[in-house]
# Entry
Amino acid sequence: MTAELVRGQNHTLPQTRLEIRVSAGTPVVAGATLGDEQGTVHGVEWIAHPGSPQLPGLEVSKQAAAGHRLAVDLDALPASVHRVTVLLALPMGVGGPVRFGAVAAPFVAVTGLEGTEIATFTLTGLDSESAVAALELYRRQGAWKVRAVGQGYAGGLAAMLADQGVSGAQELARSVHEAVARGMARSVAPPPPRTPEGDRVRHAGTASGQQAPATSPAAPIGDPAPADTPLPDPAQPRPAGGAVPTAGPAPRPATSGPINYAHPRRQSAAPPPPPPTAPPAEPGRPAQPVAGDATGWSMEERLYNQVWGMFEDLARTTAAYRSAVDFAESRMEQELDRALSDPRNRIGGAGGRAREEARARRDQLTDRAREALDRDLAQLAAESAVVEPALPAAYAGWDNPVWHAYRVPMEIPMALRIGDLHLPESADLRIPLLVRLPLERGIWVDSGRTASEAAALTGPDQLCRLAMENAVAHAARLLAVYPEGEFSVHVIDPAGSATAALAPLVESGVLAAPPAAGAGGVASVLAHLTRRVDLVQMAIRAGASDALPPDLDTAEQLLIVNDFPHGFDDRAVTQLRYLADEGPSVGVHLLMVADREDASAYGPVLDPLWRSLLRITPVADDHLADPWVGHAWTYEPLRTPPGSQVLQNVLAQVAAARRSGRS
# Structure
């Protein structure tokens, strides 16, 4: 039976391998400190936080999120540790809420590894605090207990760490928030939950063939809850595992005039479950996968939710495998330390037998974990095999036959595929990387060298060429999935170095104007788009969108910027930062093509710009993080098949539709 704790109450822990699950109405930073009998933390090496997520017996998330799972193995903690304090803090300097009183009360649950709740605690009564000590696991007379703390700190993370005796608390807190900001720059923003149970509802079974508790992914940092989406009520029962639905991004303002940047099918009501399209699985056998096996109002939405569910399933099953392997290694080391610390085992063959037995137990645990992972991977691979052919054009790769039947659509799709993701444990299983439409975040195609093997084998000139070709392919996809006249593309190429890569866009006639070159061209395009953002924002605030100038293009706008920051003066850089911050809310989006390392040499003035954009690469690179457990995923850009004319054919149809619309 679950113990629902109130502040100050404690409860005995029946086991030592635990998960601590955190649910909040906004992304929070989760960490933990190790303390002695007096609760004193004896240095930064006793603190687990996003910049240093692992300690012996303890692992926390690498980034801010609205949902966290902290892994704790109390037996693996050092003998000098008597307290584990779970900390929550609001990320600073990222545009989100700055006090817990402005968000829904966080909910914390201590569970066993199988998901059974042991104790729960809702952190109510917080106001100006931006950091809080949520729970404390403590050792008392050889047994472990959990206590609900709920101690908030208006001084934030620094004040909380200082209260625990940490020297240099201010510098450490600053480094934690900087690590979170870096994580935001590389993190894939998850979709908002779509039902009261979360957006992943399995009716036939999960990757492992068992019914899974519904979980809610984290909402992007800084997005307020929409007015028609209720925040979770702490007093209401929660699904298994303590997960609660979180508020998703706010819809863009809708007006009575011609401009409405809210997605036409983003309902706030719960969508219906998918129809039963597959017979139930036989007992003891995993369910047969079905395309569209998720909730949604349409098949497109069901496939979208299903892809994100596969993404989350793969992230979590891989995290479970890695955690099991780490635990097996840790236990083997402890057994060897205990065996070899006994002088009697150093004589004869006792020490050798102890090593063999410890390694055998390690191998047994690792093999069992691999069997479970392989079972889940097989189920996910089977699901991918039926989902991939069923994807609509916006979600499909360039090699999908759906592009051969392409026609200019009549409405905007929910999302766009910009690449594939995979993990080293499952290199053959690719998860489509879908981003929501209209774009809520710009994109930076990094043309510089990275630490990946593919980048090391590619010359600098070839990387620049591939980066620009990648940007052109993304622009072509965006043009292809929008209805005629609802999307425009502008290009800034200061030195004219991307002429060859831009040929498909230029020759097809789909650009709003020829690529801008030179200082005058750069200034003209940026002034035009900045003016558009200003006018639309003023019209929306005044509720007078019908008063916009008749020459203003109300279509979504994409600006491709090549070779940044070369050829850009301070004014141009300021305008680009303004477009990156304010443009997406009124339909102006950036697609930067440049070397991020080269751009970083221009100082911190550019940091807010590139941190606000999603970085992708023209070759395979493991730089993106998922929003659940923070794995480093290998990103693979989408490529057209060798010799294929699919890109040119699609652009030709887009151009023909525009000509017919103007005639």
In short: The first strand starts at residue 3 and ends at 5. The radius of gyration is 26 Å. The mean pLDDT is 81. Residues 100 and 127 are 6 Å apart (CA to CA).
